Amino acid sequence: MANKRGFTLWFTGLSGAGKTTIADIVERNLRERGTRVEVLDGDIVRTNLSRGLGFSREDRITNVLRIGFVANLLTRNGVGVVVSAISPYKESRDQVRRRIIDFIEVFVDAPLEVCAERDVKGLYKKAYSGEIPQFTGVSDPYEAPAAPELTLKTDEESPQESARRVIERLEFLGYLKISDDDED
Question: One of 15, 87, 92, 162 is an active-site residue; which one?
Fold first, then answer.
């Protein structure tokens, strides 16, 4: 196994910023390196672990704390955990950070207009028309991280470039061995 020490890589950002796309690329890279890895995607967690929760502030915080609980269990057992969840409130992300020693926050940053343009599900259109109340970034706040370990400007770089930067940060922080490809 490539990693003996677990970690939680927490991707946060608006809907459509690129969290899941980048997380998928990072996951593939980690698996190719022999890393034990699990992905906790916000949409999938909501339909399983957090079914029945709505989108009130309290329900969103509960959802993030549930994801954090599972991520902590995996991390302390030597698994690399990749979380992809909007997690809009600083308070809940900070609570998770305090519980998980090996926590790496990645702010997937894209302007609201870019996220709305990328929206294949039509959620922003529905939010702007009022069909979806409490939509993060439109009618509900998103509190950007003040000091993430990494910020990805996804309107300025490709998903592959962003994923490469994430892997490089994991190497720099000592969670991954520097790959032979990086030494050229």
Answer: 87
